Amino acid sequence: QVQLVESGGGLVQPGGSLRLSCQASGFDLGFYGVGWFRQVPGKSRAGIGCISGGGENTNYADSVKGRFTMSRDTVKNAVYLQMSSLKPDDTAIYYCATDPYDCRRGLDFDYYDWGQGTQVTVSS
Alpha carbon of 22 to those of 6, 14, 35: distances in Å? Predict the structure, then answer.
């Protein structure tokens, strides 16, 4: 069964850090770009960034550039989102999804195999 599962969310104070994981099962994640997205209830989903299948190319939304870093582990078949200097505005449900175009199209196109999401809350 093709599946992505996000984990690592939680409650963190402003200025803190979290690392989210996106674990794939049923397929080789290395054949796909992986996008990270977030959504606040009542608002549209927003793209955070995308990491290519080989991990050599990444792109980030301006809102997280310099604070968030994506990486991937081909052995573990997983992608990670390291989040630092977190702000209350980063509070959202975070999702990962695959991109068969290996991040060449950007974040405004169709992504697939969405996980269930993981909640990140930044609050003092």
Answer: 4, 23, 10
